[in-house]
Amino acid sequence: MADQQHFPHTYYDKADEDVAFQDYAPFRYGQVARDPDTVSRIDALRKNLDPILVDIVDGGIEAAIMEAEAAVERTARSTIIREQHDYRASLNTLDCLSVSRVSWAATADPIRMKFPAERIYEGDVFIYNDVYESAGTIGHLPDYCVVTPIFWDGRLIGFAQIFGHVNDVGGRMAGSWPSTSTSIFEEGTICPPVKLYEKGQLNEGLYDVLLRNSRFPEDLRGDIDAFVGANEVIRRRVTELCDRFGGNEVEAAFYEILDRCAEVVREKGLPLFPEGEFIGEDFIENDGLTLDKPVKLQITMRKYPDKMVLDFAGTSPQAKGPINWPVDGRHYSKWLGAFFKAQIPGIIINEGVTQVFRCRIPQGTILSPEFPAPVVSRMTCMLRMISAYTVALAKAFDGEVVADMQNIQIYGLYGQDLEGRLFLMREIFGAGSGARPYADGTDAVDLVPYSKNLPAEFIEQRFPVEVLRVGLATDSGGAGKYRGGLGYEKEIRTLVDGYYLTVTERTAFACTGIKGGKWGAPSSSIKNPDTPEEEAVYFSRDAIPVKAGDIIRLTTPGGGGWGDPLERDIDAVRMDVVRKLVSPERAERDYGVVLDPVTHEVDQSATAQLRKRLAEKRGPVKLIDRGPYAETLIKKGLLDVSDPELECLDCADDAVLDHYWKDLYKYTPRTLGGA
Amino acid sequence: MTWRLAVDIGGTFTDVVALEETSGTLHLAKVRSTPDDPAQGFVNGLEHITQYGEIAAHEVNAVFHGTTVATNAILERKYSELGLIITAGYREALECARQTVPGEFGDITWWIKPPRVVPLERIREINARMDVRGMVIQELDRDEVAAIAQDFKARGIQAVAVSLLHSYRNPAHEEEVRHIIHEVYPDCLISISSDILREYREYERTNTTCLNTALMPLLSAYHTRIEQHLREQDIKAPFYIMRSSGGLAQAQEVARLPIAAALSGPAAGVIAATHFGTLSGSQDIITFDMGGTSADICLVEGGQPRMLTEGKVDIYDLKTPMIELHTVGAGGGSIAWLAGGRSLKVGPDSAGANPGPACYDRGGTQPTVTDANLVLGRITPTIAGGSVSLNLDQATQVVAALAAGLKLDTIAAAEGILRIAVENIAAGIRTVSVKRGRDPRSYALVAFGGAGPLHACYLADWLGMQHVIIPPNPGVTSAYGLLLTDVRVDLVHTDVQREDRLDVDRITAEIQDLERRVTARLEDEGLLTHETRLDHFVDMRYAGQAYEIRVPLAIDPATPDIHTHIQRAIVAFHASHKDRYGYSYAGKELVELVNVGVTGLGLLTRPHVPQAQPAGKSPEHARTGQTAVYFSKSTLDTPVYDRSALQTGNELSGPAIIQQYDATTVVEPGWSGRVDQWGTLRLERTH
Fold first, then answer.
1. pTM of the model
2. How far apart are CA A434 and CA A437, in angstroms?
3. For residue B119, which residues of chain A lie inside 8 Å, CB to CB?
4. A127 close to A200: Cβ distance less than 8 angstroms
5. Domain locations in chain B?
6. Could you report the predicted ipTM of this complex, rounded to two decimals?
7. Torsion of CA B498, B502, B506, B512, to 10 degrees
8. Which of A56, A256, A257 to mutate to test the interface with B (most CBs of B within 10 A)?
9. pLDDT at B353
10. Fold of the B486-604 domain
């Protein structure tokens, strides 16, 4: 682990960082040399570039990306792309920097590394999903990436690219998401960076191979055609800008746009952060195979006058199961960099942020796994990285930060429909967002912008399922002066025999409350609730057998609360009860508010007394409240945290472990797979 | 004398036009809008024009109205309290919505969800349930509904929305609920979702129904007020209101379905622009209506505006037929600012009418597009026929402050504001044209609204467009458009069927049912109609897609066989998909029919519009002076003309400024113009 001596407070030079992290995984896996001619030509132009032109190019790029993404949404087939917006378009410079607003994956690096410039032609379209040949830009096989080179005046000036999460790319499980895989080969077909089109000609043989390896070839073709079409939109818009303003000028503007982002983060963002070293950690529930063993993600945040470095030393080694996330430091920086918006709402983040804000990853961890490590559930790392960062920020800002959240999980059902055809229903489902130091969290929202849930009237048309309820899970929001957002509660009835699946986190661990705010309720799936056969299922599961007529009630986690719940506005608590977002029992227990059971009127004196009593009993509030599962593990010495004195350990309880660990392997085979 | 009156209420002004049907005599008036009580503005405008035009009550043949009352109520969330009855299990449908955080990745940390149309405490669940085929799973319990109606009545809730799962497939339960509420609580205003939006996707249908219901008390009070005034004035003519679809409906129909009038005002502008474009020989146009806060853009081909089946007002997706208007937050009052202290942005925030641009001298301290135009000399400090003076010093001061942040001089910053605003508008024009595979250069730009003519040539240069058309009275174009519209009824029915398993008999029955309902509505509405027309359409997609494309179903009495028409529509669908998205799966994949629909038009007689002959006077006659204007990189001495004095056949070349009561037109260098026999100014690029 790099210690602080490597980082004098005057730390400035990039070389120092390289020395400090020489034993770490490279910050950027891609090795694309910049062409010296281009560099000098563009640098010369940048000196006198009209700033208004830069604004126009910036606006033009954003409009092109929006237009391309809208085209994908309208024509793609996989519900995860179309309804849930799990795809992203971007524009890359010649040296593969993403100029458009934050796209956390997929750049043109592997294309540049594999194909010399003289073999990239106008009319080419590249495709890949090969995680380990992607130069650390793609996280798992269902993300197909399509890259189209952009030429102006016969010269290559950049790339349009889109990646999106398709329904199925083959492999062991329908939907290509085995939560117990031990090798990437179990997870689907691997397509290295290749040309799908050369000079406008489709390579039909290649396309046939890709489609033949999917359980839903028509969906896959619809998705890939949508990506190719949308890239063409970006390519055309960018060449139109070049026609109007000159290709050199537009290219120079790309670099100005990147530098502007870096400058704004450096000048407006960094000064908000205190100097020093702050450690945050969070835990993935398990690696999919050993279910009672959490996996740690640790961040040490170090702020310098003109740079912030996040050191991931302390993070668990590469996992046997598929929770590894194999991209590079550059991409982690873009992913977390978007959260500068919590400090500076409205700030524009693009790849420029990586000049100022850098994630450094030790080798051999879950964030730097080696081929052929399984990776399909890398989403768990993505989400827990945000949580670990939240804890580090809470320490840096004395709790004046947005509380923890877990806003993406998947549930699904597959089998044969009433006509005997294979069906796969999957929904990316949001949850409650974390409370803020100034407002409640938001109920039932997804982390991915524009993501949409599936309408019941769509599900019932398409799949052999009845949707009995879609709503909010009462009492799921973490209590606080500001309450965490509520998670969903959904009930479905299957009309056929089949299998239920979940890809989820925060089923035992809870979303962390901050500065006196309480943990949010974890999620669960309950088979046949309120019947003698009732059975609760926790953690991610591939294949829980269900029979026609079975009901599943699933909930998603509530966001962490912020601030002391005993300081919450009494009328806000009353309205939450009236609206059935909080139960009368929890209003008393968590908030110390006593209400008339019929009229819901507040008993002011009883409330004042109860709040006083609860405050005395409880003692001073804690900065970090992770909930009973984590607290029990910490108390028993099964988990390490860096600043135990800041942690609330009030609700540690051995019974919690019994509850979660009973029947742990009922739906997860103990022996699986090979290398 | 037989007069048609049109009243268009905008944010700042209420425009009134009176047209005599046989002579074509036209009177115009502008009165100040009264946002606190919009009906008052209507009354003032009507009184003004009838007195000024000496129009007697019995001479009024029809009154037409375009209004932003519904839009503003949505934008300002000033709707009435309502109740919602929904299927058990879906009480929180509005809370969950579609789980969407607008904006960018990371915005979830700070975005706060705006209030829902109906808060949870006024939502009631009922146990009745249909399945996806419209078959009853759980019967309706009348007592349960009656008790809810009683409770709403006791709480003084004026309006109730009803939205039940799969009602688009079978509305029986919703209709029964409406009936029961009506029995228990006769005064209650009710709308049911199958009546408002008969399409699948429960959140969108429920939310649209709730918004509609929330607007009902407001709109019915508004109409009552206006109709009462008309009665007092002894005006017995029918009263029509423009809807977002560009079609008219009578006031009681709008009171039932106010949501369909959410974009009433801008739709009329498109109709008028289409009219003026057609008159001066251009059927393929892009309309550009720029006012104080925004610019509305629409693509028109073959004299037909493009239509949408859904759109957006504020944060709400509205699924009602509307003219495909693209709105850009760029108007005269749009504010220029520095994002992140660095990047120059214009809009979407606007100084509005109050305080207005800095040069209005009413307390505005931020630079706006109008201030930039004034600094550049594109508008003169005295406008509106001398009735308004603008403060150039104030404008210069605020633009200079922005210039300092950009490290530019004041003129360069003012031009920058203009360029960014025009670039935003150009992006909007590309959205409606290039994005659809249309080249804007082969369209004429019809520019109107208070600020449209000011930016038209600049914008056309930017996009490489050759022709610009400025209607005779750009500021009241929308009001004029109200006189050029037909009565319109749209009805849609969702019935998802795959191409290879079509139940043609069922579709035929559905179409016949729609035709019956549309015709009945037209008969109720069409007091002035001389002819009706029914257009049929289907919405289709490839099995597996979630979005449909609307294609016409060319049913004619000669070929009653629906099957043939559907096959033709499928061919048209493949072609349309290729046209929009660059590829199709003709011969490769099956198509799904999703909706069938019928549009009924009750055609109104068109008023006579006179033509003027060339009068022989030279344009010098209309010249009122000379002013210095900054045109990219140089200042030119520019003649100023009075539009009202320009005559048919007059020609002039840029640079020139043409002033009139309601707008200023800038003829850029490299452009020339001619006034045609309809009084329209037609500008052409000569460079």
1. 0.85
2. 10
3. 579
4. no
5. 3-74+221-261, 75-216, 264-331+422-476, 334-421, 486-604
6. 0.91
7. 90
8. A56
9. 63
10. Dna Ligase; domain 1 (3.30.1490)
